[in-house]
Amino acid sequence: MTPAGSILIDLHHRFGNATGVQIASSRPDTVAQVLIGKTPEQALDTVPLLFTLCGNAQAYAALLACRAALGMATEPDIDSARELLVQLETLREHAWRILLDWPLFIGLAQDKTALATLLKFDALFKRHLFRHGEAFKLDSRLDVDAAQLTKLIDALEALIDVSIFNGRLADFQALTCEAQLLDWLWRNDALPAKLLNYLYSQDWGMTGQNDIACLPKLDAEALNRQILREDLTTFTRIPRWQGRCFEVTLLNRQWSQPLISEMRRHYGNGLIVRMLARLLEVALIPFQLRQLLAQIKNDAALPINNTASNGIGLAQVQAARGLLIHRLALRQGRVHDYRIIAPTEWNFHPEGVVAQGLKQLTAQSLNDLQRQAELYINAVDPCVQYALNLTDSRNEIEAHA
């Protein structure tokens, strides 16, 4: 695999108050460059080898971009099956954060057993959805075993109910307001309840609240025009839309859910809203998997937002961490240019939602400031490793005196 790079975050503070943030990324452009000169088929074989995170979403975006560039017709039923795999992957990525990261914030043991079980579902779903388990090829074919898939979804839901919600999944799915949430927290000792209670006890619900808006749904043709106007490399590294920074996190997808909408009135886009959005997405994915399975069986159309023009293909896919964009250009049947704009480019933009959120932090101690920053970065969730450095602004002033 091509090295993924990392993100360096410098948080400057004074007396526990953030005074400035610098974010620098060493994420390489070489991932996409590996694909130059390959045929579409070769590129699609290569993409899954390049990404250890969100491999299904990356493969799906690559496939949609290739199909668009080649002028191939849409495949509504097969794309519903592919979307099902992306949703399954999203659940796994969220569970990774919840089961491995969240315990560390409150001094609890990690649950690696449940996560190991979750990892086995991807191959099983592919086996019962596609011929030979091949989901992301130009000639993929469905081979659906609906009965087995239904059992797998039921087993998946039971696993997250026990491992994440401590048997209270159905109760969590029904929450629509903060009063109900507080009652659920009081009656539950599941890991998420303990973390959320910790945020309440520290009065950190609004931590990181800022004015960066969620990216609106982008028309593919308009997006392609803006990419060309701004320069491909610039948009790939530090994307903006119509001159503004936006966030493309999972909060975008849960923005209008009743519980999230209610919590936003009190906490804006602060930390507790982001944590709840992840938890709610996990809770709702089994239902979405059942809907997608029904679409496959009923041959229902799944809208695909991609575009093609003169051998150029652009695709947008909602990956676990947010909007993923692939854009490629074909010349004489081979990849001439390939660009990937991952969610991290939007969310960890030097002036983006993480930078603006960290600037709002205030704490009673250096340890609390660091914990707030780590919680907030975890909630937005980069797809690469990051390093957080805290620098006392008073020392900087003295050094320049």
TrEMBL record:
Q: What is this protein called?
A: Ni,Fe-hydrogenase I large subunit
| MF annotations from Gene Ontology | nickel cation binding
Residues the record lists as binding Mg(2+): 340
Residue numbers binding Ni(2+):
383
Q: Which InterPro entries match?
A: Ni-dep_hyd_lsu (IPR001501), NiFe-Hase_large (IPR029014), NiFe/NiFeSe_hydrgnase_LSU (IPR050867)
Does the keyword Transmembrane helix feature in the UniProt annotation? no
A Pfam family cross-referenced in the UniProt record is NiFeSe_Hases
Q: Which UniProt keywords apply?
A: Magnesium, Metal-binding, Nickel
Cofactor(s) needed, names only, are: Ni(2+)
Keyword Magnesium in the entry? The reply is: yes
Entries under Gene3D superfamilies matching the protein: Cytochrome-c3 Hydrogenase, chain B
